[in-house]
Amino acid sequence: MNILYLEATEKTPLVNLDPNTGEFEISGKSIPQDAEAFFLPILEWMDEYVNTTTIPTKVRLNLEYFNISSSKRILFLLYKLNELVDQNKGVTVSWHYVETDDDMKEVGQDFAFMVRVPFEFVPYRKGFRHMATA
């Protein structure tokens, strides 16, 4: 299985899914014109990953903003991670958000409530370069 890497644009997030390390990152803005088309290859990649991985998975979500249609696709992605939980494969999500952005924190909490995947909430200060901690 190959790494899935999509460079960030003004309307789409950086996507870096590495099946060799089990480390995934989605960061930036997600306001594509057609969220279904953007997320389809990601969800298809996740189908294969869920059925083949044997290593723990760490997902880092650091989204500045996303639209409603992206929200639905992000939830589909998190549902895929439920399958790893069901297979007793280690999986965690770290939800990164600007410490003053209560809305983004609450959205992460809502997502965490809808899935069985353990979430960690990681606030950071806007304007500071933020490195993964998960």
Q: What is the CATH architecture annotation?
A: 2-Layer Sandwich
Find the structural class using helix and strand composition. alpha/beta
- Shape assignment: globular
- Our count of domains comes out at 1
Strand content: 25-35%
Rounded mean pLDDT is: 94
Strand order of the largest sheet: 1-2-3-4-5-6
Helical stretch tally: 3
- Can you write the helix and strand succession as a string? EEEHEHEHE
Overview of the structural elements:
With 134 residues, the chain is of the alpha/beta class. Helix content is 37%, strand content 30%. It has helices spanning 35-52, 68-86, 102-114; strands spanning 4-6, 14-18, 23-30, 57-66, 91-98, 119-124. It has a six-stranded mixed beta sheet, covered by helices on one side. The mean pLDDT is 94.
Task: Give a short summary of the structure.
The chain has 134 residues and is of the alpha/beta class. It is built from 3 helices and 6 strands, in the order βββαβαβαβ. Strands 1-2-3-4-5-6 form a 6-stranded mixed sheet, covered by helices on one side.
What descriptors fit this protein?
globular, Transcription Regulator spoIIAA, 134 residues, alpha/beta, 6-stranded mixed sheet
Topology (elements, then pairings):
Elements: E1 4-6, E2 14-18, E3 23-30, H1 35-52, E4 57-66, H2 68-86, E5 91-98, H3 102-114, E6 119-124
Parallel strand pairs: 3-4, 4-5, 5-6
Antiparallel strand pairs: 1-2, 2-3
Helix pairs in contact: 1-2
